[in-house]
Amino acid sequence: MAATQEEILEGLAEIVNEIAGIPTEDVLLDKSFTDDLDVDSLSMVEVVVAAEERFDVKIPDDDVKNLKTVGDAVDYILKHQG
Amino acid sequence: MNSTNRTVVVTGVGATTPLGGDASTTWEALLAGRSGVNLLEEEWSAELPVRIAAKIAVEPGTIIPRPQARKLDRSAQFALIAAREAWADAGFTARAGEDPSVDPDRLGAVVASGIGGVTTLLDQYDVLREKGVRKVSPHTVPMLMPNSPAANVSIDLGARAGAHTPVSACASGAEAIGYAIEMIRTGRADVVVAGGTEASIHPLPMVAFGNMMAMSKNNDDPQGASRPFDVDRNGFVMGEGSGAIVLESAEHAAARGARVYAQAIGQGISADAHHITQPEPSGNGIGNALQNLVENTGISGTEIAHVNAHATSTPQGDLAEIKALRKVFGNDVDHMAVSATKSMTGHLLGGAGGVETVASVLALYHRLAPPTINIGSLDPEADADVVTGEPRALPAEGPIVALNDSFGFGGHNVVLAFRAV
């Protein structure tokens, strides 16, 4: 069963917490991975790999650069999840 | 600023070693003659020919937060801990620039490792084979590159005058400190954080060193296995950790009223050009480094009160070092208190020069030479005053000198000299 927007946000928050140490409650839709959440380009690769596994979705490298905010990632996953 | 022969002093020390999580705990343990060697309890060690090692006393994971630690090889974690301690010990309260007493453009970082991020490399290869391409960490390259500890110390402290990583196996840490002394002496920097680090207690390095017949296989007596200068020594014991110091131009240190542990007089360097792993047995190669030190610094044997020997507990190496000291300093060796601290710390490879420089500098500062443990019967060919049992008081007055010897596979010989102030 596909995950809801809320479930995806919750999952991403846990992933970002694990990788960058940011408290889950601070991982909100309008936050920028790079500017707000201490997720640099290398750590973003880790976020993407963890999200792919968790939400059964493929996020090609070319699409990763468009995922600036948590909201971008949530929308992408909502649209593409298997 | 562009003067080419400035006086260099040591104003901070830091260490994380098998004996303690900081320099003072390590120093107290050295004086107490404590061994940091233990039987490995990891599952992977069960079938290895060598199952003893000197693991770090305080795991870096208890100090560096996980989000940062997971992007750093264990060797870089050690280096960061030691460098931060040395930095704070020198009296700096924040990153260069944020602490106005040091200009980031005049601060350097020179941190060496013998092997680099070997556990990262091997662990990520396991990940590749077992979990596939996508699971290999994107941090793998910046974690395993041997300059990673220097780069991370530079980033952490704001060192912009240059970050360097000399690599010369077990002489690497000492070579880093020698390089740092030169950076300040010749005017490239006013302050340099320098040291060595190593983290290679992993099955592959343990087996590879073991297969070279370089390591002690005294698995039934871990604490007695590292026995430099003893007749029954049979190889080194691998250790892990890091030691770092803050070097500073005397002028810069005086201007900010810093405590000075010792003067860093200079270094002597040579290469054996003999064999890729065996030391040149007559001591000529090491003697050339000592002679080079004398020429560079003008010190004489009469001034040298203490030698922190390289002495790894191998049959050949320990004797070559004593022969070299005799060759260059003759009868003056009689009044040098020789300590082999690897008897307690194990051999930290690229970290050794860093930790042993910390020990040498503290020996001068406290005028006390640590003992060498596990000498049941001193090798009669080790013709020197090796300190055993209790710590030895060094002359209470005067500008006495201490040497820190470090030699590496490949025939690298580095000798550092420090003077009490």
TrEMBL record, chain A:
GO terms of molecular function: acyl binding; acyl carrier activity
InterPro entries per record: ACP, ACP-like_sf, PP-bd_ACP
Annotated compartments: Cytoplasm
Domain Carrier: 6-81
Keyword Cell membrane: no
Top-level division of the source organism's lineage: Bacteria
SUPFAM superfamilies: ACP-like
Sites bearing O-(pantetheine 4'-phosphoryl)serine, chain numbering: 41
Pathway: Lipid metabolism; fatty acid biosynthesis
PTM statement from Swiss-Prot or TrEMBL: 4'-phosphopantetheine is transferred from CoA to a specific serine of apo-ACP by AcpS. This modification is essential for activity because fatty acids are bound in thioester linkage to the sulfhydryl of the prosthetic group. 4'-phosphopantetheine is transferred from CoA to a specific serine of apo-ACP by acpS.
Cytoplasm as UniProt keyword: yes
Chief location bin: cytoplasm
PROSITE patterns referenced in this protein's UniProt entry, alphabetically: CARRIER
Single biological process term from Gene Ontology: lipid A biosynthetic process
Gene3D superfamilies (alphabetical): ACP-like
Protein name, UniProt field: Acyl carrier protein
Organism taxonomic ancestry: Bacteria, Bacillati, Actinomycetota, Actinomycetes, Kitasatosporales
Automatic annotation (TrEMBL), chain B:
Domain Ketosynthase family 3 (KS3): 5-420
The protein's annotated pathway: Lipid metabolism; fatty acid biosynthesis
E.C. number(s) listed in UniProt: 2.3.1.179
InterPro entries: 3-oxoacyl-ACP_synth-2, Beta-ketoacyl_synthase, Ketoacyl_synth_C, Ketoacyl_synth_N, PKS_Beta-ketoAc_synthase_dom
Reactions accelerated catalytically: (9Z)-hexadecenoyl-[ACP] + malonyl-[ACP] + H(+) = 3-oxo-(11Z)-octadecenoyl-[ACP] + holo-[ACP] + CO2; a fatty acyl-[ACP] + malonyl-[ACP] + H(+) = a 3-oxoacyl-[ACP] + holo-[ACP] + CO2
Entries under Pfam families matching the protein: ketoacyl-synt (PF00109), Ketoacyl-synt_C (PF02801)
Keyword Lipid biosynthesis: yes
Alphabetical keyword list: Acyltransferase, Fatty acid biosynthesis, Fatty acid metabolism, Lipid biosynthesis, Lipid metabolism, Transferase
Family per record: Belongs to the thiolase-like superfamily. Beta-ketoacyl-ACP synthases family.
Function: Involved in the type II fatty acid elongation cycle. Catalyzes the elongation of a wide range of acyl-ACP by the addition of two carbons from malonyl-ACP to an acyl acceptor. Can efficiently catalyze the conversion of palmitoleoyl-ACP (cis-hexadec-9-enoyl-ACP) to cis-vaccenoyl-ACP (cis-octadec-11-enoyl-ACP), an essential step in the thermal regulation of fatty acid composition.
UniProt name for this protein: 3-oxoacyl-[acyl-carrier-protein] synthase 2
Organism: Streptomyces niphimycinicus
